[in-house]
Every structure is written in C-alpha cells, then in structure tokens.
Amino acid sequence: MEFGPHLMLASLEGAVIASVLVLTSMGLSIVFGVMRVVNVAHGEFYMLGAVLAWYVTSLLGGHPAVGFVAALVVAPLLVGLIAALSDRVILKHLKYDADRTIVATIGLLYIIQQTTLMTFGPDARPVEPPFNHRLALPWFEFGEGGFAMYWPWGLSTTSYKLFVIAAAAVVLVALWLLITRTKIGLIMRATQQDSETAQAFGIPVGRVYSMVFGLGAALAALGAVLVVPIQQAHYLMGADPLLLSFIVVIIGGLGSLPGTVVAALLIGMSDGIISVFFSPTLAKILATFLVAMVLVWRPQGLFGRSAT
Amino acid sequence: MSNGTSKKTDLNRRTALKGIGAGALLATGAMPGSLGFAQAQSSAPIRIGFQKHATGIGAAYGRWYDATTQAAVKRINDMGGINGRPVEIVVEDDGTDPKRGAEVLEKFANQHKVDVAFGTLFSHVVIGSAPRAGELKLPYFVVSEGHHVASGMLNRYTLQPGITDVKSQVQSMAPFVANNLGKKVTMIFPDFAFGHDHRDFFSAAIEAQGGEVVAKIAVPPAETSFTRYFPQIPRDTDVVYHVMVGPAVLTFVKELGEFFGPSRPEIFGFIDSLEAVDIQSPGLEFLEGTYFWEGNPRHAQENNSEFDTAYRAAVGVDARGASLDDPKDVSTYAHMFGCWETLNVIKAGMETADYQGPQDRAKLIGAVEAMTDLPHSLDHPQGAKLFNGKTHQVFGAQFISKVTDGTLKVEHTASIEDGMYEDEVDYTAQSF
C-alpha cells in the first residue's frame, strides 16, 4: 500500500483505539483523582461491560440495534452498581488506604474474571453491530493526467467505527459538562481537593466515593459496549485495556482529566499508526518506554500538578 | 492404633503422639502399595488422562475435544472396554498454557495414576509438556497437527496417531493453490510454533510448485484487532493464505472481508480461522467462493460415508457440524475427529500389547509403533490412514472445500501420498 493511504488507514484505526481508550482511562483517572484509589480491577469492569452487552443483545433478539441500545444503557448501569457495591463492601472498610486497596482490587480482579469464566464460559462471543457498512475511502494523487482521485485497495473503514469515534466524543463532552457544570460535579471536585473539609461542609463523602467508583467502572463498561461489535466479548479481554489505561493515566498525570484525554489520544493514535507501519509489539514497547521516561523526568505526568 | 510395646505407666502424651505418627506413616505407606495391587486386577478401569484446553485461548477446541472424547469412550465401553476393563477419562484443565500443561502431566502420573495421557491440541502446550511426559515415562498421545512430533523435536513417549501434521497438510494443499488460485501468495499466520510450521512448510511447498510467497504476516495469537496487519498485503498478491487461532478468529475473518471489500484476491484459508464459528455469521458473506482446507468436512457431503454419519450422531453433531442441541453452537469439526481416532488407536495398541498396567507402557508404545494401515471404518471415520512408527506421525487424506451458497463443498481431496515426506527422525532407535 502507498504511503498516503496507508497513513490514513493507520490514523483511522488509531482514532478508534484512542476513542475507546479515552473512555476507559477517564474512568481510571476519575477514581484515582477523587478517591486516590489505584483500581487494578478496572480492566475487569471493562470486560464485564462487554460480556453484559453480549448477554443483553442475545436475550432481546430482533434487530441488532434494539439489543445494542439496550446494552448501551443496561451494561454500564449494572457494572456501575456492581462497582459501587464493591466500594461499599470492600474499599470502605479498608479506609481507602493506598496499599490495601491495591491488594483488594487485585482480589476483585480475580473474583470478577473467574466468576465470568464460571458463568459466561471461556468462549468468545460476537455482538452484532447496529449498523455496519464498508466505506471505501478515496485518495488523491498528482499523476500524468494531473490531479486525480482514486480508490486504493483496502483503504476503507466502516460506518460503525466512525460511530464509535463520534459516540466517544459525545460521552466525553457529557462527562466534562457533568464535572464542571452540575452540582454533582462540584461535589466531586470538592471531595477531590480536600475530602475532610468537604465532609465538614456536610458533603456525604462516603456516598460520593461509591458514586465515583461506580462512574469510573461505568465508563469502562461503556467503552467496552462500544468496542464489542468490533471485537468480541471474552473473559480475558480486560488485561490489555487495563495496561493501556494505566499507561495513559501515568503519562497524562494521575487524576488530571485534560491530561488523560491528551495522553489517550497520543497513545491511541501512536498505537494505531506504529502498529500499522511497524508492529503492534513495537507500539507497546514504545508506550511502555514513554511511561518510564515520564516517570523519570516528570513523575507527576505531563499535565499533573507536582505534590505539594 | 497405639504403641503396643509401651508399658501402661509409660503411656504419656509424647509416646501417644509417636504412636499416632507411626500409624499415620503406616497408613500412607500402605496406600500406594494396595492401590497398585488394585490396579493390577483385571476389573479396574484403564485411566486415560485428558489434557483439556478448558480455559485460555484454546477453550472452544477444548470443549469439543471433550465432547468427542466422551463419545468415543462411551462407544469403547459399550463394546466391552479395553482388554475387558472399562475406560475412564480423567480431565484436567491446562489453561492452554505450556507451563500448566507440564504440571498437568505430572498430576496425571503421580496423583491420578493414569495409564496414558492424551488430547492436547495447541502446539506450544505440546512442546512444553512432552519433555515431562518423557521424563515421567508416560505415553502421551497428542492431537495437535504440529510438525514437532515428526520433526524429531520430542521423544519416544509422544505420539500423534490420530491427526496429520501441518507439514503434510500444506504440502498436499500447495499444488491445488498454485494450479487453481495463483502463484503469488501472501500468508497470514499466528506467531507461534503452529503458525511457523505453516510459514516454513508452505513457503517451501509452493516454491516447489513454481509459486512464491510474496509476504509473510505474523499475528500474535492473543491479538484482538487485525485491520492494522492487512496493509502489509502486497498489491500484486494473487492468493491470501490465512490461518488463525484463538478467541478472536471471527473478528479476524470479518476484518479481512471489510479490508478487501468488493475487490478481493483469491482467498485460501485453513478452517482453523473459522473453527467453532458459523460460516453464515453476519459479515462473512464475502467468503462465498473462497476455499478452505478441512481436516474433516464440517458439512455432510452428498456422498457422505456411513462412518462419518454414525460418528456425527455419536458425538451429537448435525449435518452442518453444529450441536444437535443448539444449531448456533458450531463444533471444531475439522480437528476433533483426531480425539476419536486416537482413542481407538490407544485401544488397539493396548489390546495388541495385552496391556495390564503402567509396567506395560513400553509394550504399548511398541505396539502402536508397529501399526501401519488404519482402514476407513468407524474407528477411523475421517478416512483411511497410514501410521509411520518411526516418526510417530499418522498420514491421511486432506480436503479442500469451496464455500458455495454458505455451505462448504469438497472440491478436491488430497490423497495420503500427496502428504508424504521423508522421515526426519527414528524414534524407535531411542531407548525407553
């Protein structure tokens, strides 16, 4: 494939990866920002979202769009509830101690993964996209006959992939409005800045924590519902997004939401482009190397504020 | 059981404890002996350890290998078992993981006390487990397709009598590909031993036919997204040769179709890329008119043999290779016959060797090594086979099917001779 179309295909693939990554990393980042909890089970909430999406769509039948819309509502809600519940039952009793919550969420990771294995089974399950059209894309060149448009072999995307990018952007804007323009967002930010003072002003910090933990998990689940018609639901699918989300959050700055968005775009796009031109393994190597460099030279992350 | 020699006045807590300790030692020490004696009795079941990919990337195969194994054992037991003894299957999950695979063999030998181990598919698990089978002197019958058995990489205790290997398969496919589809081939294969077998042997085989491999695209076996690999397919490719494994195979084939759109080259795939997947799934319409290698035709053909029909019924699979209970649950039909046939080879071997217990394991291997012709029968429903005792590898017919109206129709059958190659090892020269 020529360089131009090749780059365009790579960028499109990268944009799909990046948009799903933005959602999952935002979930991880919000949880860390507000609660100071490193949620190792985040990838499993993502997996749970995908599996529930399969369950809901296979339960409903009919036109794939019906099941998909239902999954879009039900899966994040249910995963959010499970997460909020596990905050109440587990994390609260550990008093959100940094080390102990890491161990507890590792435990949660295995509980969710193995429960899914025992109930849903080890097979990969497809979810039919609500709509899916192959869109061949044109390319331009200056040949002997001057400026010409042609359709290169393989340069295409699907309408559903474009929808994923758009949907992620919409969710991101909604999230930004929630945090900056609503009372809930104000309470969240207050808790993030100083939870003790917030409590002194009558904010139910415990409930805010549960809600935030649920919201973080719901965002991961939402990303998974969007991606599951492209990939497939499988009980081991949580490992990759967890690693990438951690990379994004560390590069962007723990708890910094604009940093998370920028880093997710950076990692997602570079993962797409490098893996198309070179190899997916090299993309992972470079991303991990970038994390190491950020940790050495700018431990607070690109957009993080240094600890005071 | 207390210490009888102690005088009553000496019986304090310490001696009592000693007595209990001695009793416990006796009990555990006596156990294996009595168990061994029980095993020598002719009525005790013959225990076959089934190394199952119940979880991990091989899970779909594991489930169907299990179903086939249970059906084959039921048939063997209904016919009176082996040497008058019933057969019992001991299942252990290896997680499709080589390290776990070796541990499972250990468990089979030392804890479950099985007579033989059997059933592994994924080549990295076989390669990880076989050395341990050799050390444990446990006959290990694999159903793996990998060339590692016949290449001489493994040992005398590892045999593959139920399914042909990749080298033989691709060698018999290459003439058809070169003569009917095209000479310039791009290969897409999983990046581990099994995929490397495809890469190396098909490259050589197509060159022998005057063709060439213009690009080799390796994909990590745990990959979930594939579009990014396809731009490496050169524009002048005549034929795309694909073989993929793992939970994401449906995504792989779908994305291949989306990439090419209406202007695809010829496509020749190994059915591995679609095992356990319904060929009429949405997004797979582009496969119409493409070709697949099949180890055993998934869809019952017009001239279906009575043996295949009976085998389908025994395993619980319909004419489209799907579960009788759920037509959406498609089997790994092209591979799982290997479990059925391997168990029948174990049965025949044990009967020839008059197998009584683990002390006869070497005799069993000798009996299997002496086998040659395995005729088409209900014991071997896929077709007649030829076993090579020196390389521990079986040879059989291969099928090329064309997708016609959503059904796999056999277009070409490669004979046993098409897949033969020179011996690379003589395991019979190795000591037990």
Task: Kindly describe this structure.
The complex is a heterodimer of chains A (308) and B (432). Chain A has helices spanning 3-35, 42-60, 64-89, 98-119, 159-181, 183-193, 195-200, 205-227, 239-252, 257-277, 280-297; strands at residues 134-136, 139-143, 146-150, 156-158. Chain A is mostly helical and 308 residues long. Chain A has one domain (15-131, 183-297). In chain A, the strands form two sheets. In chain A, strands 1-4 form a two-stranded antiparallel sheet. Chain A has a two-stranded antiparallel sheet with strand order 2-3. In chain A, helix 2 (42-60) packs parallel to helix 4 (98-119) and helix 2 (42-60) crosses helix 8 (205-227). The longest helix of chain A has 33 residues, at 3-35. Chain B has three domains: 1-30; 46-165 and 336-395, Rossmann fold; 166-302 and 399-414, Response regulator (Rossmann fold). Helices cover 37% and strands 17% of the residues of chain B. In chain B, strands 7-6-8-9-10-14-15 form a seven-stranded mixed β-sheet, with helices on one face. In chain B, helix 3 (98-110) runs parallel beside helix 4 (123-136), helix 5 packs across helix 6 (193-208) and helix 9 (333-352) packs across helix 10 (361-369). With 432 residues, chain B is α/β, with parallel strands linked by helices. Chain B is built from ten helices and 15 strands. Chain B has helices at 13-40, 59-78, 98-110, 123-136, 166-181, 193-208, 249-260, 306-315, 333-352, 361-369, and strands at residues 46-52, 87-93, 116-118, 140-141, 158-159, 184-190, 212-219, 239-242, 266-270, 291-294, 373-374, 385-388, 393-396, 398-404, 407-414. The two termini of chain B are 43 Å apart.
